[in-house]
Amino acid sequence: MYSLNQQVLRTDVAGMPLEWIDYQDAVRIYHLGQVAYSCGVMLYRIRGGYNARSGRRSVVEVNSIIATHGDHNHSLAKARAHYVPPLSNPALFARDAHLCLYCGQQFPARALSRDHIRPLSKGGTDAWTNVVTACKRCNNHKAGRLPEHADMTLLAVPFTPTHAEYVYLQGKRVLADQMEFLLAHFPRTSPLHKRLSKMV
Fold it and tell me: Using one digit for the tens of pLDDT, what is the confidence trace for 95-111?
């Protein structure tokens, strides 16, 4: 059995990843009969109260991936194709694997910062394709310049995560079966494939 802190991956009936939920939300979804099917490993078994008539105790077994009714329709799928996830430092640092994309070293989140490749002062935007993870030292050295003017080279091209990639980036302690499931929904050209295939 896993810790109750382990997140459950919720998908729609078609298997499209939607979000991470905690055990309480998962149990509620099971109780309301909204689970279409489940897969992956069994994370935990939650015991409830006793039935007054039968004397039986309720038990809910929660798997690592659960598909729910009522979330899949054509317009939602179309909207997801054009989805631009909100930009946040935790998601950005996860996208870039906590690597400074200038010096190539890995750092804890507290030592990282968001660098605008084209600085805001020079017309740059606060968008996924114009930001990278940088250690504070490299960010200070680059200052308000373009990388080439600071004699710095970007180690990877920034990209906007798809909905499935963003769901992955939001995860904490993603299990192997959840990661494999998410990887199947990443675009073939996703830069995350190479990095994550080493971890699965």
Answer: 999 999 999 999 999 99
